[in-house]
Design a protein that fits this description.
Low-confidence stretches: none
Number of strands: 27
CATH architecture of the largest domain: 3-Layer(aba) Sandwich
Helix content: 25-40%
Oligomer: single chain
Strand content: 15-25%
Distance between the termini: 70 Å
Structural class: alpha/beta
CATH topology of the largest domain: Glutaconate Coenzyme A-transferase
Radius of gyration: 22 Å
Mean pLDDT: 95
Largest sheet: 9 strands, mixed
Number of domains: 2
Strand order of the largest sheet: 10-18-16-14-13-19-24-26-27
Shape: globular
CATH superfamily of the largest domain: Acetyl-CoA hydrolase/transferase C-terminal domain
Amino acid sequence: MRVNSIQTVTPDEAVRAVRSGDHVHISATSNTPVCLVAALCRRGRSGELHNIRIHHLHTEGPAPYADPSFEGVFQLESFFVGPNVRSWTQQGYADYIPVFLGETQRLYREGYLPCDVALIQVSPPDEQGQVSLGTSVDASVAAVEKAGIVIAVINPHVPYTYGDGLIPTDRIHFFVEDDTPLETVLFALPNAVEAAIGKHCASLIEDGATLQMGIGAIPNAVLAQLSGHKNLGIHTEMFADGVIDLVENGVINGENKAIDRGKMVATFLLGSKRLYDYTHRNDRVLMKDVGYTNDPFVIAKNPKVTAINSALQVDLTGQISADSLGTKCYSGVGGQVDFFYGASRSAGGKPILAMPSVTEKGISKIAPILLPGAGVVATRAHAHWLVTEFGAVNLYGRSLQERARLIVGIAHPDHRETLDRAAFERFGPHYHFVRA
């Protein structure tokens, strides 16, 4: 078949290019090429492939290649552990490469990981013979640069986005057609705890700030509180639906940014169909290589960078565990340190760690010490603002004992006495005389 004079093949024909021992990159988040993944797994079941190593950021939708039934055929070594592979990673059937999100592209470009085959999904070609990576630029640009074979799914649901994700069609070896809608994520309205966190975070955001936020209910709760702000900008690793109304109402306009003025800069998108439609041929949206969006020295060029991220657990000194629960991998390093450091170097910048004070089971997320084996994603030296539903405290420049007092003050009331006692046992009799 042909698409705009491009010869296409079936998914099964395309994945014949994959050979045993290859390293295969799969484009991620909302833009995973599901028909190629399915075809690769069909071929894997045939018995003709072995020792294929798969790399990607977190993907949405099924990830059958990580199933234990493919042991010896596929080995997933992801850059971020998403919900669809979490159980298998925790059981050891899949693996995880700890890496700052901004440096995932370096793994390919500098040869730490080979990239034999890149499986990507793209928009239909434009008049100049280019296709767009749409909603998932991230490390896929580097993968396409380095791959010996590039296989692209042309999908009319992929928005044509501007920036670094434009690829000449002559760089692609095989084209496949598919019209499967992109994976969508609908975030629920914030509950009372998330709304309180959102209000505390919003109070720290100044007019003219450049925002970075992660995925989930808390970022949406923050955005819901910003209708009265002015001249906000976006430079982030990702954004979701919550920014659209703020752009249309003039709150987000990027006028105060020092670089990419007037543009919303991101490296991937995850949200509803409305978001994907909104970004299609929208010249206010600039999708950039993750080596640009997450470079702390690029981030710091904008003023008042306010970076809001979350965590699984924080100890009384401000150590932040965000990728694991004890020894069990839960997510990934992601861009937290990239943006914490970038925000801390930005004129008037604020790194913010925002999280509920307790888990859904009532366990305190503030702990005397991190769970044994937990990964420290951001060190106590990276920690600045810490926010729970009970308030916001700035830990920067504070001693260990001062930090403990401040942190206990925004813990859940049910756990403050226990935490206070742990701090007293750790720091000695002078702890209670620490200046608040």
